[in-house]
Amino acid sequence: MLGLPGKYREVVVLYYYQDCSTAEIAQALDLPQGTVSIRLKRARERLKPTLKEWYYAVWTSAYARTLS
């Protein structure tokens, strides 16, 4: 999350952590709603590889514990 550029990070925080709708974010940041949607999409695309690595590490760690 910290690796995201600020313009992506702010919409992610508002959408996922503050539970704001894209319309509310657009109004708060004085942006078109389409811009907010695109920024969320691009942020997800940038986070996807990191989240996959994290999920894999957590899953393999949990699986290894069940075998021991």
From TrEMBL:
The protein's superkingdom reads Bacteria
Q: Where is the signal peptide?
A: none
Q: Which GO terms describe its molecular function?
A: DNA binding; sigma factor activity
Name one process (GO BP) from the record: DNA-templated transcription initiation
Q: Which residues form the RNA polymerase sigma factor 70 region 4 type domain?
A: 3-47
Q: How is this protein named in the record?
A: RNA polymerase sigma factor 70 region 4 type 2 domain-containing protein
Q: Record's NCBIfam families?
A: sigma70-ECF
Does the entry feature the keyword Transcription regulation, yes or no? Answer: yes
